[in-house]
Amino acid sequence: MRKLKNSELERLDVEGFKKAKKTPIIVVLDNIRSLHNIGSVFRTCDAFLIQKIYLCGITAQPPHKEIHKTALGATETVDWAYVEDTLQLIQQLQIEKIKVISIEQAQQAIMLNNFKVDKNTTYALVFGNEVKGVQQTVVSASDFCVEIPQLGTKHSLNIAVSAGVTLWDLSQKLA
Predict the structure, then answer these.
(1) What's this model's pTM, rounded to 2 decimal places?
(2) From edge to edge, which strands make up the β-sheet containing 123-128?
(3) Using CA of residue 160, residue 94, residue 140, residue 84, what is the dihedral sign?
């Protein structure tokens, strides 16, 4: 067995990515302060052909050197927009019949492994601030809260890790 070279991976180019059928998922970053987390989420969204990323509140926007370090060009492939108010954004998405899921530990949260998707639905996944999580007003307005099961002593996962786990899981369920 040998490792493959990048040239052997047969990945899409930027034009191919733009034309490809996207996974019916939108990512909403609610006040993410780490530029490396933002870049990592961009890169993960590229990997799973995510429709769009919304950067909200204090979340920094490309172009930025520190975002680019971890995004590795994904800011050029994944469609994104900045919206100041996360709550207003999710209310607009709900008007457009998009189901909003806050990835958060909350009363009545559904464990990720138990969450059932409707393949005819587009989902918006809200990931919150590294310290405070998703804003309570956004959690309260969400259609669902989904929690990633954890077995250890820590109370949470890094936001970039949470995005990777959740996007992989939902991408598999929607395929």
Answers:
(1) 0.97
(2) 79-83, 50-56, 23-30, 123-128, 99-103, 144-147, 110-111
(3) positive
What domains does the chain contain, in order, with CATH numbers?
A: 21-149 (3.40.1280.10)
Q: How far is CA 108 from the centre of its chain?
A: 21
| Buried b / exposed e along 1-29 (16+ C-beta atoms within 10 A) | eeeeeeeeeeeeeeeebeeeebbbbbbbb
% of the chain beyond a pLDDT of 70: 100
What one-character DSSP code corresponds to residue 170?
A: H
Q: What is the mean pLDDT of the chain?
A: 97
Q: CA-to-CA distance for 41 and 113, rounded, in angstroms?
A: 21
